[in-house]
Amino acid sequence: MNLTESFLTALDSITANKLRSVLTMLGVIIGVAAVIALLAIGNGVSASITDEISSIGTNLITIFPNAENAQGYAPLSIGDVEALADPLNAPDLLEVSASVSGNLPVVYGRESVQAGVNGVTANHFQVNNIDEYQLGD
Question: How far from the centroid of its chain's Cα atoms is residue 58's Cα?
């Protein structure tokens, strides 16, 4: 059986079983469309995650020291931050930023409340890619 005979036999089968042929083609089309859609969604999610990570800085290291850790080392101080910011001590660091936070009493007149207070160095917003800072952030 040559190629021409095989092609004619296939056409005869398709025309003899029209509903089966249409359903088969529909299944193939839906399957291919589903694979294409899943690949597009996967690529979109991957790009979104990559953009989100890039926006916070792919070359950013954040250290969260506790007051006293299990090994008994002292917490980081502002002197440690200044030493890290010194290009002679750490030439590969471009920027160093420090922050401190806690709940402290805030007093106004005779009223006093405990409030969350955050303190940051002047370059904190630049280091963390923060363009705008709004009340409550």
Answer: 10
